Fold this sequence. Notes:
Elements: H1 3-17, E1 22-23, E2 34-35, H2 48-55, H3 79-93, H4 96-102, E3 113-121, E4 133-140, E5 148-154, H5 168-171, H6 181-189, H7 202-215, E6 221-227, H8 232-251, E7 255-260, H9 261-272, H10 277-287
Parallel strand pairs: 5-6, 6-7
Antiparallel strand pairs: 1-2, 3-4, 4-5
Helix pairs in contact: 9-10
Amino acid sequence: MTAIEHIKSKQIAWARTNAIELTGSKGDRGAKVYTFFLNENLYEPMSCSTLEQFEQGNGNELLMGRDGTPCKMQALHSSSALGVNVFEYWKKLGDAVSIAVACKFVRKDSVAPKMIVFEEKYPISEERDHPPNIDVVIHNDDSSDVKRLAIECKFTEACRTHGGLDSFYLTKCFDLWGDIPNLKKLAESISPNDNHFQYFHAAQLIKHILGLKKKFDKHEFKLFYLWYDALGKAGAIHRKEVGKFGGIAKEDGIMFRSMTYQELIVRLCKTLSAKHGDYIQYLVNRYL
Length: 288
């Protein structure tokens, strides 16, 4: 059984335990790993603002087929659904601080985190119609030295191979590379094909850094890589690749942090179970 198959099997078992019927990506066709209704795949329904943010994103996460077949977020293994299940709860509470502390972004006494946004766009160049969307972004208080806490979320994607970096970003975005020479060297080595990283999507993270640098100084944002750890060879390779990229980013002064969803959920259990028991128990039952 591959790492992806193992993850899907755990999610199918969770659905069965909770009497949730499943369908294929094309209804009767495809593996039955999609819920019939979106809210069955979520801890709680999304707020209107979150729905709007996903509708305006480039990932088409909520776009259903013309024949009524499920949208991407109805997949049990959807990284967007996982991100919503973890972060939407705190957005609705208006408590960006607690989840930022759990992610080790800020100290316990911090009051800087103010707002959680999904699928926020950070354009790199006007020549590109589809700027990178960052999965989750925590906005800090305007007076804070660090303005944004940007989070890239991965589920089964951390067990898949990925493409390289479009040469456009090296030939057309000269002004963004000056103070990150090590990341530029890495970018050159994975353009147009990435033969250095097997499971870690380095090109995507580099584009996120460029987009954030277009708007902020490199000391004004932190980039957080949050992934679902998998057993076996794929998981082991991916963990090493995360560390490799993190070392390169650190050399250039980019504040990069990584954590597994499993570690984050355990941290939530240890510190917040008393006040947020139902939410945390859902995460434990489904993802641990």
